[in-house]
């Protein structure tokens, strides 16, 4: 997960990440504001500094899945180049984006998908938002993404939206 802020991770993908963590995934959120990682820990994710992650030349182990905020993809050349490299070389099994719109160079490569949050995911996402001092909001039953499965077909936790 690569996002500009911890709150963005929780707000747009917190339920999905919680459900993946509960299914045994190792979930890492690469963000700029990682000083108080407690809200991310609530959803089962560990925090890594964006600048430190971008500066490292060692990329191992390779992620099975990457998820990126579309605004960060559009504004940060390093993130954009990393996503395009993953797509071009098939280095991850899944590339997922969230946010408004879709960059033209990715539009034909990704499709709209959704994740139905478990009841626990909704509760933990709400708690993580409170811990992050995010504005109060109702946690919905689904989270929407654009995704491209590169290796094995669509993940069972992301289904076509529609």
Low-confidence stretches: none
Q: Which percent range fits the helix content? A: 25-40%
The assigned structural class equals alpha/beta
What gyration radius follows from the Cα positions, in whole Å? 15 Å
Please describe what this structure looks like:
The protein has seven helices and seven strands. With 162 residues, the chain is α/β, with parallel strands linked by helices. It has one domain (6-160). The strands form two sheets. Strands 3-4-6-5-7 form a five-stranded mixed β-sheet. Strands 1-2 form a two-stranded parallel ribbon. Helix 1 (6-22) packs antiparallel against helix 7. It is globular, with a radius of gyration of 15 Å. It starts with 5 loop residues before the first helix and ends with a strand.
Give the SSE map.
Layout (H helix, E strand, L loop, with lengths): L5 H17 L4 E5 L6 H5 L2 E5 H6 L9 E5 H6 L1 H13 L4 E5 L5 H4 L3 E6 L2 H13 L10 E8 L9 E2 L2
Parallel strand pairs: 1-2, 3-4
Antiparallel strand pairs: 4-6, 5-6, 5-7
